[in-house]
Amino acid sequence: MSIFEARESExxxxxxxxxxxxxxASNAVQVDDQGKEYIDFFAGAGVLNFGxxxxxxxxxxxxxxxxxxxxxxxxxxxxxxRTFMERFTKTILEPRDMPHKMQFMGPTGTNSVExxxxxxxxxTKRTQIVAFTHGFHGMTLGALACTANxxxxxxxxxxxxxxxxxxxGCEKTCSGCTMGCGNGVIEQMRSLYSDTSSGLQxxxxxxxxxxxxxxxxxxxxxxWLQSLAALAKELGSLLIIDDIQVGCGRTGSFFxxxxxxxxxxxxxxxxxxxxxxxxxxxxxxxxxxxxxxxPGEHTGTFRxxxxxxxxxxxxxxxxxxxxxxxEVKVKGKIMLDAIAPLEKKYDQVQIRGRGMLYGIxxxxxxxxxxxxxxCFDDGxxxxxxxxxxxxxxxxxxLTIPQDQLESALATLVKHTEKVMxxxx
Amino acid sequence: MSIFEARESExxxxxxxxxxxxxxASNAVQVDDQGKEYIDFFAGAGVLNFGxxxxxxxxxxxxxxxxxxxxxxxxxxxxxxRTFMERFTKTILEPRDMPHKMQFMGPTGTNSVExxxxxxxxxTKRTQIVAFTHGFHGMTLGALACTANxxxxxxxxxxxxxxxxxxxGCEKTCSGCTMGCGNGVIEQMRSLYSDTSSGLQxxxxxxxxxxxxxxxxxxxxxxWLQSLAALAKELGSLLIIDDIQVGCGRTGSFFxxxxxxxxxxxxxxxxxxxxxxxxxxxxxxxxxxxxxxxPGEHTGTFRxxxxxxxxxxxxxxxxxxxxxxxEVKVKGKIMLDAIAPLEKKYDQVQIRGRGMLYGIxxxxxxxxxxxxxxCFDDGxxxxxxxxxxxxxxxxxxLTIPQDQLESALATLVKHTEKVMxxxx
Amino acid sequence: MSIFEARESExxxxxxxxxxxxxxASNAVQVDDQGKEYIDFFAGAGVLNFGxxxxxxxxxxxxxxxxxxxxxxxxxxxxxxRTFMERFTKTILEPRDMPHKMQFMGPTGTNSVExxxxxxxxxTKRTQIVAFTHGFHGMTLGALACTANxxxxxxxxxxxxxxxxxxxGCEKTCSGCTMGCGNGVIEQMRSLYSDTSSGLQxxxxxxxxxxxxxxxxxxxxxxWLQSLAALAKELGSLLIIDDIQVGCGRTGSFFxxxxxxxxxxxxxxxxxxxxxxxxxxxxxxxxxxxxxxxPGEHTGTFRxxxxxxxxxxxxxxxxxxxxxxxEVKVKGKIMLDAIAPLEKKYDQVQIRGRGMLYGIxxxxxxxxxxxxxxCFDDGxxxxxxxxxxxxxxxxxxLTIPQDQLESALATLVKHTEKVMxxxx
Amino acid sequence: MSIFEARESExxxxxxxxxxxxxxASNAVQVDDQGKEYIDFFAGAGVLNFGxxxxxxxxxxxxxxxxxxxxxxxxxxxxxxRTFMERFTKTILEPRDMPHKMQFMGPTGTNSVExxxxxxxxxTKRTQIVAFTHGFHGMTLGALACTANxxxxxxxxxxxxxxxxxxxGCEKTCSGCTMGCGNGVIEQMRSLYSDTSSGLQxxxxxxxxxxxxxxxxxxxxxxWLQSLAALAKELGSLLIIDDIQVGCGRTGSFFxxxxxxxxxxxxxxxxxxxxxxxxxxxxxxxxxxxxxxxPGEHTGTFRxxxxxxxxxxxxxxxxxxxxxxxEVKVKGKIMLDAIAPLEKKYDQVQIRGRGMLYGIxxxxxxxxxxxxxxCFDDGxxxxxxxxxxxxxxxxxxLTIPQDQLESALATLVKHTEKVMxxxx
Lengths: 424, 424, 424, 424
Prior knowledge:
homotetramer, alpha/beta, seven-stranded mixed β-sheet, four-stranded mixed β-sheet, 38% helix, globular
């Protein structure tokens, strides 16, 4: 019996899908302890936008350690943090005229959401949050109340309160869907929140992902997001964009909402922001919101991670020149071109996505599971997401070499067709 | 205006107490960007038990990075994780006959507490948790409900529910305290929880720190902890020890409860477990509790941190031989000997602590603040904790050289006496 | 200063609308202490379906008192209760093949709703209740969470939890309404409750009024109620009809849902059930639901009111022969015929109602208030309801003489036209 | 099968203890439909302080009905209400210099508690209420959260929130009790509520019965009540006395707290206030608290009960002259003298009470149940209360003739001794 079977909690999950022991990794390739190689279309759940052991970051981090740079500093000032903040301001915020402050917290996405909810509630003196069907925002009690999936909610042990869920404004309408997604929902919310006898009161904030990655790669339409932003403004509610999984370049620009002409009050970032897999979480908060914080009110021991600042600074470098984002557009097209025929071939398949994030909704979890397993055996790591795990998520490192990308896509299409058989 | 003033959130805290920019650090010394050195009696809020840039860990981590070891792996298996788990099992769990499983989660203490609460509630089919006055357990909504300090609670924005607070069983009774601490509280709880007309129902779990570090270095008596453990057993409630700040060797043994003859169902670990400041959080959960988890129910992107596994494995090395723990006993005595006279000299001073963790309760926050500031100017980093910040916390790296320890203590005592003046 | 000004709570309300002291009353006429007479189109908020001091009931009650009948008996058996239950069973339940049990509780509508929520939650092991926009269900904390009007909700002092509000299925669509009422809402709920990643879970019960009297005389369509009943069945949720204000004959049949072919699990009754204004509240609960109660779990001191049983038995008499219900149809038509022209004349007016309950929605509260005041001065008691008090509610005793009915309607129309002026 | 078995809810309770059908009643005697007489030591759960069908009230009520007095008036003014309010002010409030306003609500005790909680929360802008072990305050969700007995709490179906329970300050210490009742609890609360790191915040109100009738006839000491009142004042919390069961003359004065030199902000009254068993509920609220109500914020259809005003006015007559209250003292002594020997005879028996309310705590519910059943068979109605039903409650009408009182006490003692056997 391995140490994992003997001593690791029954809660372990991904190791059941990929039942090997990984040893080393470089850019888009992971190698197990038997030497078998895998192309990584999972990227650490969207963390590793710049690949495993990104060479630039690796060098910077080793140099930092060698020089005895401060590894751990809570919210004291450090030179590494100063560099990160300066570079982020210059490269990301200033070109967008974003006046937002940077708030660091315990380095997990769920902590960033918890912090966002706290300040939104304080500023508005309201308690209710509106989140959306299929949204994923974390596992701690405040964020979990916003997460839609009943698998996670059922573990809470206490009622999940102070959050209302409305239908997400998908760009594509799933067949058979009667939720009345899209702008109808915005109008319904406007009516409900404007009527003092509706039983509902305007929320502290609307919390939304522009693309629900865990939720099944559901893509909100630009029009819907703009309507939502307008509604938030009308109601005096904050708009919080959870860009934890789809920010940091995934969609071909730093933020997933770039170019959508919306102006979020808070942006939650984690996963990719620390660059190469060491943790960081950071909220961008408008100054008029941020000023309501008192010093030290929302702490977190690991909120000052030196290595993440160093690697994260290197990551920002990818946004100082257009090369990588241009590549994302090219590679994204390659991805879509490769999988689009599946949608045509199978009635039950729907393809959704943007940038270098795509989901193949195969209609049910069993089918998706079989495809994931077949790919794994064939040296490709993909993962299922969405309700009942019915969507195969493609989220490779943005830096994946084109030949690996193409070969992996071929593998994926091959196994999908094998599992799904002749066209429906 | 510095980037910090221009762009960092108003919530920043420690940087206001230590208004410099730290650059490098080694063992118990931090150096700011002006080259000024500070002896570190804060240790990253108890994370850096083995010092900044611990040489053993530094080498191991650099080697790991150079070899392209997996940095980030969620809950997939990795060779680094295997080594960590094997070493932890052999060195820590087996000698204590602890059958506990290891559960990894988002790498912050608050996430570990949230996970513990979830499983405790599920197993017992109860919702209420008992926590204690002055306890500190984290910032996310579930853990925050257990944290006692109103400064943190007031930021929640929603009512904090499903947690009852009872007086903590301090070894020393603060003057003027009428909470009826100690075993009286255990008997009161027994009465309340045994009476079906008390308005209270037996809790899912009792969540307790053996020493409340943030809460003011309040030390629970062994007798009280044993009574609490017995009560938990009687009521069918779990006993959860939050050893996040005072575990990992701080008290002269790996767990703070070693030698107390209590048998917790869950132990929460974070801070020091990752070795040198990179994040890790891990719960030890009895198998009969752990088996109630379903795979993937409590996730967290950064729950598989390669560097933390590598450094954390090195940290375990310090428990394979008796040297460091022996040193802790010696240095702890040096600390107590240095500060004990203050308690004699000043009526309002109370000294509390164990191992290499001591608190000097100077009676009010203003006095403590003045002492902290004077020490900082004189090159010593200490921090205030407890209600209103009235307790100066001494928590140096366990590996601090003896001469630095003594010199820092002298600095501390000198400034305490300067600030407090002639004996009361 | 009157005793009312000197000593009655500031919360007093109706006495501000009708600033006189009432002394006597008979059928549809109330007389103040100055001898001025008023036709009563308010009927004690829908309690006095059979008029003030109904002669049949008056005699029966006086005889009962004279004979030393038991006045107050909690849930002991009494002969008066036996008679009431037998008569109710024979006249109301058996002809409808309703197997429901009768549950008596503290004699207010809100207590009946609280009891219904408790047993629905127990039976389904779920916590959430679905109520509807503009619904009114009472003032105590459990029922208040179901009540939609923010005026009442704002007095709760604590968050109102465990209830979701959806748009009510009005027969008529208010102009400008974008809630997507009607069957669209049923389909939306079906989608949300069938999707395990919607963030919502199927409710314990749907709680609905067939006509929202306090909410503005909003009439649910038969089709919508049938769809709702079907959805409840699908989801394993209970259907609770709150017939407190519109049951007991108000719509021309005992229950407001008679003839709609729906089969509620619980029916809440109060107001009119006690016959002549003494309190009673009673739930009708299907045996398979009711059997989950344990004896004495939901008590209420005044749940056994002898006078209400006696008067209530007499009230049942009105359902043993068709006369009164036939009259309701005739008089209801008279009401509608009198006020329907207002809808034609004024764009902003909408007429809604059924049986002998009508609402004139005049578009805003100020207009309605002026009309109510003018009617009062002219000897007619009407009241405003709905959001912002924009709807004038007509709810006379069912036993009102036809000439009084016609004269009162003329008064009402006259003042409405005076206040609203020439046609818009 | 009787109609009760066929059609009454399984929740019915007292009818299972007294399995007969009551028909008539006069003062302290109830008669069943077989003509069997029972002396009533239960008085409708403390409602019938002035006996069944009290002759004074009966005449007044019949006259009122005959003259077509207004039976039901919500919170409109009526002449019957004016008389009641004037008489209550003159006889009860003015002699005590109580400036309180009278607030009427849905006529059940639980509604009065709900109203008190709402205004207390609003005035203090706090949510938490402190209630006490063994307290009973009602069945609706807000009041139920204050009720201590798990039998009732378990029916709520949702978590009961925003209320903390502390040990009640019994005058007598139950053997084996380790709750640390009495002033120790007051000091503990003072410490907890004064410490900003206790996890507790000062409550909106302390809600307390001076004698817990349902809770087992537990009598608070005057000293404890005064300490509690002082603590409330210190903390800016309201003091709410729930005098629903033990007010209205039961203890030998109108209020149970008369002569205790405490000054409650709110007094909740119901049960006996309506005089002869028709419902009324009324809160006395200090003007500076009451002024925070907005008109109509806490409604209740049956809040203006004409018959209860009429009978209640007659009840006030008993406080205009000293006769009845003098009698209560004499009869209370007779009661105590009769049962005190049981306490001496049986180790497990404890006698508690005051005025004409006594409890015989026989140590366990089975014993109490057997005594209650034996008394019933022998023509005496008594009831069990307290945890597990271990206390026999003696609460006869205050107007019971002395010979009936003595004979009933003899019956009770006889059966107690029969059931309990020779002295322990």
